[in-house]
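Ticket opened by: R.M.
Priority: normal
Category: complex prediction / small molecule

The reporter submitted a protein together with 6-O-phosphono-beta-D-fructofuranose and asked that the result be attached to this ticket for the collaborator who will pick it up next week. Submitted input follows.
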Amino acid sequence: MRIAISTGGGDAPGLNAVIRAAVMSALQRGWHVLGIKRGYMGLLGEDEVIPLTSDSVRGIAHLGGTILRTTNRGNPFAYPVKQADGSFVEVDRTDELMDNARNLGIEALITIGGDGSLAIAQKLFEKGMRVVGVPKTIDNDVSGTVTTFGFDTAVTTAMEAIDKLHTTAQSHDRVMVLEVMGRDSGFIALHSGVAGNAHAILIPEINWEIEKVCQHIMTRDAQGKKFAIVVVAEGARFEGEVGVMGASLPGQAVRVGGVADRVAKAIQACTGKECRSMVLGHLQRGGMPTGYDRLLATRFGGAATEAVANGKWGHMVALQTPHIVAIPIVEALREHKKVDQTHDLVRTARKIGISFGD
Ligand code: F6P
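Result attached by the on-call engineer:
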């Protein structure tokens, strides 16, 4: 058996641990493993396809990033091709991709990615490729799995940032607004905000009003608590707007961000308190995976090889506590996983006085 592994979309701490576990468990079965560089680019002749041996994956489980590299611009069904006039048209290059895979003797593909990469995997499966998916996102917004590797690391990074903001906010009697990742779902904001003792948490799933956030801050102020920490998910909508968009390159999803600055300015205007904002950004995607993420990633990698052995094509591995299972990719793609407002963590946050601005 000759299998290939690819990593696509934004990176997440734990990718290397998945690669290592998938390679080691495949080698145990006597299979050959290839690594496709930069998402599907290696299969489009835009990057390399390399052999993966036990030497290639030695000592990588604790490293962030991905030894196979990644891209969020390589959708082979809508590949952006530059025209003579500088504009881009999207071209379907999947016939070429399938031919290249066949010529390399690839019998199955383990593809590690978020919703975008999993949607591509599903379409390749429908086109006849033998694909097994591994869900990956720091945002924790893929359905069908209790959580994804990378999320715990991102929450830990954000929580540590909130801890540090506390001391400076307190020293200056300031309001600090921290923007964390989560373009569609507020899991990172919710988990890090509760763990880090934020005073307000603004997420896309809960309609919030800036006046309510200001009231909460002024109530604290009247009680002698002169500082406050507000955590806002990058995808949290500002007062009924469709979202704060940033620039993106051809073939890339639209970018969100910048909401913290607007929230900070609005709070300063309505409370008169001095406010500062910061965007934690890609620090959340970098660095060593936590122990939890390494273990989950390792379990996913081993389960992906098992799914290949069992012919679970078009399936992805998932954590359905306490088991790792294989579910149809289409099930996971049905909807983005969202914070459930009735979840115990939301209710606990409210019980301990955290405002959601609603
Ligand atoms: O999907 C994960 C994520 O971290 C989002 O929260 C964020 O909007 C996006 O990636 C940013 O990705 P990039 O800067 O790589 O385009």
